[in-house]
Write a structure and sequence with these properties.
Chain lengths: ~475, ~475
Amino acid sequence: MTVQAALTQADTGLDASLSRLFDLLRIPSISTQPEHAPDCRKAAEWLVDTLKEIGFEASVRETPGHPMVVGHAKGPEGAPHVLFYGHYDVQPVDPLDLWHSAPFEPVMVKGPTGDMEITARGAADDKGQVMTFLEACRALKAADGTLPLSVTVLIEGEEESGGVNLLPFLEANRDELKADVALICDTGMLARGMPAITTMLRGMVGEEVTITCANRDLHSGMYGNAARNPIQLLCDILSDLRDGATGRVTLPGFYEGVPVIPEETRALWRKIGPTDQEGLAPVGLSLPAGEIGYTALEQTWCRPSCEINGISGGYEEKGFKTVLPSKAMAKVSFRLVGDQDPEKIRAAFRAHVQARLPADCSAEFVPHGGSRASIVSANMPFLPPALTALEAEWQHPAAVIGCGGSIPVVTEVQQALGMDSLLIGFGLEDDRVHSPNEKYDLTCFHKGIRSWIRVLYALTGNAPQ
Amino acid sequence: MTVQAALTQADTGLDASLSRLFDLLRIPSISTQPEHAPDCRKAAEWLVDTLKEIGFEASVRETPGHPMVVGHAKGPEGAPHVLFYGHYDVQPVDPLDLWHSAPFEPVMVKGPTGDMEITARGAADDKGQVMTFLEACRALKAADGTLPLSVTVLIEGEEESGGVNLLPFLEANRDELKADVALICDTGMLARGMPAITTMLRGMVGEEVTITCANRDLHSGMYGNAARNPIQLLCDILSDLRDGATGRVTLPGFYEGVPVIPEETRALWRKIGPTDQEGLAPVGLSLPAGEIGYTALEQTWCRPSCEINGISGGYEEKGFKTVLPSKAMAKVSFRLVGDQDPEKIRAAFRAHVQARLPADCSAEFVPHGGSRASIVSANMPFLPPALTALEAEWQHPAAVIGCGGSIPVVTEVQQALGMDSLLIGFGLEDDRVHSPNEKYDLTCFHKGIRSWIRVLYALTGNAPQ
């Protein structure tokens, strides 16, 4: 059975696979920082070369932002056609002083669990995950000379920075990108050694607000009390976003379209998922924040959230300065579930701010992306064979779970191409995604490659009638 | 009458006086930033050389922090002895991009009022003011060969950074520094062309608080809602510092020792002072913030305040990062009046924060100075002649006013040397003290020199019996 040949190929080729992953990790493709635009292009070109090497027809495709990577490899007549999606861009690396090794000089170190950890920005999100799929294709080609089904690869470079160019690109290239199912590798496992397919994803709205009071910075002795302090005003406005007693977001209509979680689902999650204490202990916390009456897991999997992602104003350096600043800024994001409408919530947030501004102060807003939540129908034909394939690799039943993160592509693929997605990923809770010392377990990378080999074979049984 | 000779000397020597001031302004003596420590020493040495040139015995005096400058010049037998105080250190210059010229390359430009403006960091606070006194002494020496009274000069380098070393220095050098009255030049006029002596000064307590929640930055998708957000927590804590309806500070006992302003004083101030609109218009505001029931002027002259001087947390740069940070920091200051106790208020603030911390979060505090408010007794013998001298120079009655700023030296001189202070300064509301493009009107500098010549003569009539 050739699946074995491909798996053996993945095992013997692991060192080579790793060195290719390290090459990609060395490219600082931070999409949100304009000075890294050339690095984003470099990552795209690296991926095109890699796809060609494996046997794909591949090219860099321009967009108004960072370029896309598209590749095609034809499988046997009548076999299904899958669209694989991933992203080559990464998050910024600050605070740099908390990294134990340079973010873009990948290293492999033994972690507290005893497993080796591939440490670098993007190791897990999403370069490491993208490479599990490409290396699986490489092993299949090497073992069989071909892939078991037709594969189209789409790798974008703006997932971490709003991704406004993805939907237009999907729509403009509908015929080329349409397939039977999308495979998205940007999610995690239920826990170490416990594979999962994510069927619920939260959407997101990002907003940046800058409050201006006086027309210049003032001396807090000369003007303190008398002139409005934009930091104080911003704190009042942000503090009002949540009800202190219930933890609920106070924006009018915010919970419209938020589905009630079925009791049996909650019961199942309480059985398979970590307790609040288990979930928070790894990050040094013990008390769940947010909404009263929901577990930490429920809050991240299927409840909407409101987070302040950044705040800045006045004198932030060493020492003290008795300044009463002219401006203060905050970055706020909302995670959405069910049918919550990103643009309605953006408008409600802006109205919340405007309603609290004195007549002589002003607010400016910068939008940072907006996407609806997405849910994969649990009865799609590709789901059962994929779950079986994952169980075979990990020797552990594969779970169907939710995810707190936002992966707009799921909604956009549905909207532009009318396709369902399978969200299969090998990340772990402790991967420090978006944080210093981001890592990806060697086991996740290795068994991730092997998992894709099994999944691609398993999906061949689902050729469209 | 030799006062005329000295005044003429001040007029003819103005250009030379200006070029000396510019030399001092070119030294970036920012006391709160450690990398500028050598510049602080340089400023101190420059002042010692200048004092010697004028005819003072002067020297740089070491402290655990930035050095002090002390100089002595003996006057006629039986004449009073004054202690002049000023500071050579300046505030940081950020935000640098808002300066129209380099902060430490002084320029003179025509201002909107038609007067020439000396523009540089420290032009008004306090180098320009210090130089009005030194140049007055220079003119007196040049005209009379001596000073009309004995003068001791004390210029410190930590007024803008907590000034913890001043009190110990005063106590350690009590005999050397004791005089009949202290002359402090770090305050302003009532308005352009309207001289004033400040008899009420607010004290200050500065605190820096850092809140820590998770032990590392988190992904707001994975942990949002479930893990405590330190920025949200900090906003809640800071928002609770003031009562939204009354604008009053909520710390228990905060208003203990705050004196009631006599109705006649309030009436007088309403007569001589600017209206709220007049006072706020220059900075682009129209509505007074802070406490309900007090004018902007009353709030800054004789009511305590609470200001957030800086805040920082999460991702503050361009673009967006869905991070849930581990820490958030704020710098807060309270201006004190009457008998408010700085240390009691510091303790109340820390208790306010601690009381609002969930059990799994922590707060660290850094104290930044603390001083009581000070009031100069209105019946001190040196006050009337000084007021008369100022009126003679400005051809406008000199007012007795309050000041929102904190000048700890007044309390410390009283405490360590048992001396009263006369606060005579020539700053204006629009000097942009602590802000970009700080300036000092040429008229204030010139007539400031002339004012000191008249004041020093006027005080000779008050030799101690």
